[in-house]
UniProtKB/TrEMBL annotation:
Keywords: DNA-binding, Transcription, Transcription regulation
HTH araC/xylS-type domain boundaries: 16-52
Domain of life: Bacteria
Species the sequence originates in: Paraburkholderia phenoliruptrix
Database matches in PROSITE patterns: HTH_ARAC_FAMILY_2
Protein's UniProt name: HTH araC/xylS-type domain-containing protein
Gene3D superfamilies per the UniProt record, alphabetical: Homeodomain-like (1.10.10.60)
Example GO molecular function: DNA-binding transcription factor activity
Length: 52
């Protein structure tokens, strides 16, 4: 995984913790085409789904 993508995942992790927006909206804001694509990348990096 490349550094810009890791930075994006860290940013979205903070946004998810805040809980203000749905997963799909946050994922689109940082360049993922779908919540599914983001969920797969998140799971690869952290070993859990973003909903946990």
């Amino acid at each position: 995984m490349n550094c810009p993508r890791i930075s994006q995942l860290l940013s979205i992790t903070c946004a998810l913790k805040a809980g203000d927006e749905p997963l799909a909206a946050i994922a689109r804001q940082i360049g993922y085409e779908s919540a599914t694509a983001f969920s797969l990348a998140f799971r690869r990096m952290y070993g859990v789904s973003p909903g946990r």
